[in-house]
Structure formats: structure tokens, C-alpha cells
Amino acid sequence: MAVKPKTPQPETPYVPQGRDVFQTPAYATKLLVPYIPKRIEHVWECASGEGKIAKTLREYNYKTTETDLLHGANFLQDGFPLFILKKYGCIITNPPYSLKKRFYERCRYHDVPFALLIPADYSQWIIKTLRCDNAEKIIPERRIDFVTPSGKSGKDSAAQFHSMWLTWGFGIGKSETFVDLTLETKKDI
């Protein structure tokens, strides 16, 4: 019996799909902090949702600007005063799942350092980012438990895939960096 293939989730930047609105636990952002270049002072969180990434970054004294596709500036269409980011800034976000490649392309268009929390895979476009764009990955050794739209987290919300921070312009020095993610650390939601 043939299995009917799943229809891919459509790109709908103004209508959130279920898997597009998962929030980032604090520990996922804290895994990235040691790799943020020292010169960075300002972060644009352009898919902020409930603001969990920005809140964590402010704990580390980063100035943050939050926008979201559904309220505020639409990162995929609107401009942003990039002069704020050109010398001392970067983009750090967990883009909507269905729009992750478009967010990558838009970040490259802006030509400022960035980190995107996306599924860890080796799709063709990811391989191209590593080979042609000198992107780098920061990969936790365990899955990140995102906060679901219904508020579930921890073991009740485990992603069905591993996630990674795909970075560009951070100058980490190698294409893949694996970071420890302990069960104790995962309690920091």
C-alpha cells in the first residue's frame, strides 16, 4: 500500500502555523552566548514571539530590539535601521519553522553577523551555507525542548528533531561546534 506524502507546510508569514510559534527556552540562548563575538553590543531579535531570546540576552547586557512578523516590523519585507547593527550588532532569532530558509537569505542580504536556531539537518541549502557562505553550526548534544503554544515544556514538548544555531559572521573557526547540554541545564526554561 502506497503512503500518501505529507503536504509541506505553506509559507504564510502573516498566519502562524502551529510549528512556527514554539518559543525558545533560556538555556538554548545561553548555549550561544559564549560564541557571540565580543564586539557585539546590540541584537535584533526579528522573530521575537514572547521575547524569550531577547530577555535572556538582556541578562548578559546586550541591547536588544524586538520585532515579529505578526506585530511590529516584518523582517522579510520591512527595512530596519541597520546602521545600528553594522559595526556593533547582529541578528539572533528562532525563525518560524516554515520560513527558516527565507530568514537565512534575508540575514545574508543584510550582511551583518547572525545566529538562527533551526533544525539540525543536512539539506542542500544548509550544505551550501557551510561550503559557500562560511556559515558555522553550534550543535547541542541533546534536543532542545521548546515551549509549545499551549505552554508545555520539558519532556512534554520534546522536538522530534535536533536543533542547532546556524551562525554567520561569528568567526567561530570551524564548521561544527558541539556543545554539552545536560539534563540539569535543560531545567532552565
Write up what this structure looks like.
This protein has 189 residues and is an alpha/beta fold. The protein has one domain: Rossmann fold, CATH 3.40.50.150. The protein has helices at residues 26-32, 52-59, 83-86, 100-110, 124-132; strands spanning 42-45, 63-66, 89-93, 114-119, 136-140, 163-168, 176-179. Strands 2-1-3-4-6-5-7 form a seven-stranded mixed beta sheet, with helices on both faces. The termini are far apart. The model is unreliable at 1-7 (pLDDT under 50).
What topology emerges from the helices and strands here?
Elements (H helix, E strand, L loop, with lengths): L25 H7 L9 E4 L6 H8 L3 E4 L16 H4 L2 E5 L6 H11 L3 E6 L4 H9 L3 E5 L22 E6 L7 E4 L10
Parallel strand pairs: 1-2, 1-3, 3-4, 5-7
Antiparallel strand pairs: 4-6, 5-6
